[in-house]
Design goal:
The protein has a domain of 247 residues: Amidase signature (AS) enzymes (Alpha-Beta Complex). The chain has 15 helices and 13 strands. An eleven-stranded mixed beta sheet has the order 1-3-2-6-8-7-12-13-11-9-10, sandwiched between helices. It has a two-stranded antiparallel sheet with strand order 4-5. A hairpin with a 2-residue loop joins β4 and β5. It is globular, with a radius of gyration of 21 Å.
């Protein structure tokens, strides 16, 4: 596949605003890149090329001074887009065309961004590899035989392969940060409530959060400045003031205290990941950060807790997909009960059905207290661990994923092994905290590795500042795979 220049959202915005490029030219280049690479990588499920070009003409006339003027964006296919099919990568919603835009989509377009189309994901965002998509897996641009990560794999691939400089994903247990790590780009999970969830097809409502993929910390900050803020359509969207995120990116992290839970790296972490992580800590120390050993004693229970809470909420949220009001309905059914059973059996994939069954079980009479209620109590303990850590540090550093990408199909028959890939990411969702992943190196096989920084509630500016400072000394964001 032909190579392409890696242009950041900032570069594109500046070029369009200054008149050195038109939004139409930028969109044409992105569409050409999608045409050249998507057949192999399967990042996009729907490409809205004509719509994007028409929107680009409007941007050239009316939005040249907007914060994201002319910036193409890819949108995960569980985020509603008016007039563009939104499937959640499921047969259940294969023909669903929303009559409205998600708040995040509306805000991006009001800021001059241009939606290119919808990206592949694990079905209803349930997975860590995008192999659970009803439309086939997305493939890693560093090696198409390997997974892209998940659930927002298509969005990560779109940015990593140069199809779009920005993309939206959703993060329920690591679904932005983990694919960002595995594809060698930046991915930000904001604080719960920092970004509106209106128009996001719900998986687990107390955990889900929309956030950006980008090549750089600056681009992530630029996107968050547009996405963040209260929303009358979403009662959980916080009214916290939205700071000038890009202004925080000074490169100066002298005196910043970073907590390092070293005991979490004792088992299950690949040697290459551990090596890159400790080298990254040295870079941050050389920038003036102070490294402080901390303990997160309940982190070892985070995976079990997450897969009780998340599946319980999924069981409730997905009850609406029953063949009655919208979406897929199984043909040739005898009665209402038969329609329910056949519609859900044929419309949902194996992983979604597995999680619905698990969630229904832990919520059932006789098991609620033993599982769901206990998980919520442990969730509180996980959050308190971080609260105690933040009494002595400004942020917590750890790897994003314990491994780099693995081959497609390698873990399909072992879902528990796949669940364990989220060991470093789920705690931030359970505690509602912001977390930011940036590329920090490669395995000997040239597969990307990520560094994750987790912060206090609504401290995204701190995370972006650290990520930006790290980028200035490493430049991993400029790397491009020869495979594409």
């Amino acid at each position: 596949m032909p190579g392409a220049p890696l242009r950041t959202a900032r570069d594109i915005r500046d070029a369009v605003s200054s008149g050195h490029a038109s939004a139409v030219e930028v969109v044409q280049a992105s569409l050409a890149r999608i045409e050249a690479t998507n057949r192999t990588l399967n990042a996009f499920l729907t490409v809205a090329g004509e719509r994007a070009l028409e929107r680009a003409k409007v941007v050239d006339r009316e939005y040249r001074t907007a914060p994201l003027a002319g910036v193409p964006i890819a949108v995960k296919d569980n985020i509603c887009t008016r007039g563009i099919t939104t499937t959640a990568a499921s047969r259940m919603l294969e023909t669903f065309v929303p009559p409205y835009d998600a708040t995040v989509v509306g805000r991006l377009e009001a800021a001059g961004a241009i939606v290119l189309g919808k990206t592949n994901c694990d079905e209803f965002a349930m997975g860590s590899s995008t192999e659970n998509s009803a439309f086939g897996p997305s493939r890693n641009p560093w090696n198409p035989e390997y997974i892209s990560g998940g659930s927002s794999g298509g969005s990560a691939v779109a940015v990593a392969a140069g199809m779009a400089p920005l993309a939206l994903g959703s993060d329920t247990g690591g679904s932005i940060r983990q694919p960002a790590s595995l594809c060698g780009i930046a991915g930000l999970k904001p604080t719960y409530g920092r970004v509106s969830r209106y128009g996001l097809i719900a998986f687990a409502s107390s955990l889900d959060q929309v956030g950006p993929f980008a090549r750089t910390a600056y681009d992530a900050a630029l996107a968050l400045s547009v996405l963040a803020g209260p929303d009358p359509h979403d009662a959980t969207a916080a009214h916290e003031p939205v700071p000038a995120y890009t202004a925080a990116l000074t490169g100066d992290i002298r005196g910043m205290r970073l907590g390092v839970p070293r005991t979490m790296l004792d088992q299950g972490v690949d040697d290459a990941v551990r090596t890159c992580f400790y080298v990254a800590l040295d870079v941050l120390r050389s920038r003036g950060a102070e490294l402080i050993d901390i303990e997160l004693p309940h982190a070892k229970y985070a995976i079990a807790t997450y897969y009780i809470v998340a599946t319980a909420e999924a069981s409730s949220n997905l009850a609406r997909f029953d063949g009655v009001r919208y979406g897929f309905r199984a043909p040739g059914t005898r009665d209402l009960k038969d329609m329910y059973e056949k519609t859900r059996r044929l419309g949902f994939g194996a992983e979604v059905k597995r999680r619905i069954m698990l969630g229904t079980y832990v919520l059932s009479a006789g098991y609620y207290d033993a599982y769901y209620l206990k998980a919520q109590r442990v969730r509180t303990l996980v959050r308190r661990d971080y609260e105690q850590a933040f009494q002595q540090v400004d942020a917590v550093a750890m790897p994003t994923s314990p491994t780099a990408a693995f081959k497609i199909g390698e873990r399909v028959e072992d879902p528990l092994q796949l669940y364990l890939t989220d060991i470093f990411t789920v705690s931030a969702n359970l505690a509602g905290l912001p977390a930011f992943s940036v590329p920090c190196g490669f395995t000997p096989d040239r597969l990307p590795i990520g560094l994750q920084i987790t912060g206090r509630p609504f401290a995204e500016a701190t995370l972006l500042k650290i990520g930006d400072a790290y980028e200035r000394d490493t430049q991993f964001f400029n790397a491009q795979s020869s495979a594409i």
